[in-house]
Specification:
By secondary structure, this protein is an alpha/beta fold. Helices cover 36% and strands 15% of the residues. Bound molecules: flavin-adenine dinucleotide and succinic acid.
Amino acid sequence: MATESDFLVIGSGIAGLSFALRAAEHGSVIILTKKASSESATNYAQGGIAAVISPEDSFEAHLDDTQRAGAGLCREEVVRFVVERGPEAVASLIELGIQFDQDESPSGYDLGREGGHSRRRVLHAADFTGQEIERGLLAHCEAHPRIELSANELAVDLATSPKLGLPGPARVVGAYALDAELGAVEAYQAPIVFLATGGCGKVYLYTSNPDIASGDGIAMAYRAGASIANMEFIQFHPTCLYHPEARSFLISEAVRGEGAVLRNRSGEAFMRRYHKSADLAARDIVARSIDFELKRSGDDCVYLDCTAMDPSFVRSRFPNIYARCVEYGIDMTKEPLPVVPAAHYVCGGVVTDLHGETDLRNLFAAGEVACTGLHGANRLASNSLLEGVVFARAAAEEAVRRIQVRPEKLPPMPDWDPGDATDPTEAVLVNANWDEIRRFMWNYVGIVRSDKRLARAARRIHILHNEIREYYWNFKLTPDLVELRNLATVAELIIACAQARRESRGLHYTLDHPKPAPGPARDTLLRLD
Ligand code: FAD
Ligand code: SIN
């Protein structure tokens, strides 16, 4: 029998937890999360959360910076919506006891600076910002009597009304989830489902993202019939530590914001050659410039030089980064850090409106899984945590109104049908496919693309996806198999969007169409027929 609640939340990062706290004021909430409760991209965020707090800043300036980064594809009403709700969203976090670094400035907060921002507007907790936000939100959710948080529950697929034999337009009625410890698939029924599963960095060989980022929510929503947009806009963070044991540990953009300089092996501060804002140009420009430098020189990495900065400032402002680098034998106050770009953020995702609702009724989404129109073709640094809170709050408001004004009585959801599935497939097959996808996505659908590379990637993903589909239905589900299937779907969506965009814009740069197309910019939309 299905477990019922008023609201079903999938994911426990900033978006899922923010939604849960608001919705729980009006009904019961179940949060499913696939690993430990705090395991999320949110927990690793370093730089901070952007909002107009300083009297020297303005909504217009934040709007302009966001739109300039977005390369003509941001939706202005959405940018305005998020920017203007920024201060109250940040205040809601502070009310929960989340602590951002303070100082004597008129705003009272030590505001950081990052690439593409014309002002200091990034609230942070040293360089542990995400951990502090996750801690605060989680503590409140865990203590809330109407919130039940289920860890190690991996959502496998959404359930829609035709499954219950209900007439009318399709709407979401719940989800199936795999209990990773028991190996059993359980049904969760709710009139509202909130998708907050984060991004898909694991589709690339090198990524700053934690392992949870396998694009599950995007794949599930696509299979259920929701529209997906702009998946070609994958943001590569310019500076991940280049070290065999570091697994793409991020070196925050805030380090450049405070004065660090990128240099090539001969010591040249090369960013001046590429853009007038040099090291503080928007992220797509910096990542692409590093890529050009590496291809030109044949070197493995470039260097982030912090040695001219005051060492005690570096240690107190970036304690997390400093300590991690020391673990790897590098003292960043004395020697430059070897860095490379890595996949960091997906600007596309499940299309949502100003209430955070998708075009599949009763399915809401926010955070990195969603494509709201805020980021356009390139996200401005530190705008994603902000977007996650603002849209989670807006979605909760609408979802609560929905169940209060027009509650629908649903017949019970059927149990999961495992068909003739036998014991799990050989792990070696899953690992080999997983590895192959991530490698060709890095090589063919990376920072610089071409028609030929994309066509090759499309051929590979087509073959692999068919292979995965085949054994997906023949074998009992395991978390790895579920994630592999989602990864393949997401790779397919990224490639399809990239092939459809026959221009270079923001994060999508292709050698065959190196300029933006004339006329108004358009979204790339995909929907399963
Ligand atoms: P997440 O925080 O990623 O949470 C997703 C949740 O969904 C997790 O709990 C996960 O386990 C769960 N989940 C996923 N799939 C399933 C499934 N199938 N079933 C059940 N649960 C599932 N942005 C900023 O604005 N400022 C920063 O300083 C910043 N720094 C960053 C640093 C790093 C290293 C990284 C990786 C990202 C950074 N970002 C930053 C981006 C930002 O952290 C993310 O975009 C944001 O935290 C996403 O929040 P979210 O709630 O959408 O998803
Ligand atoms: C960083 O600290 O550089 C990451 C900020 C972001 O991704 O917004």
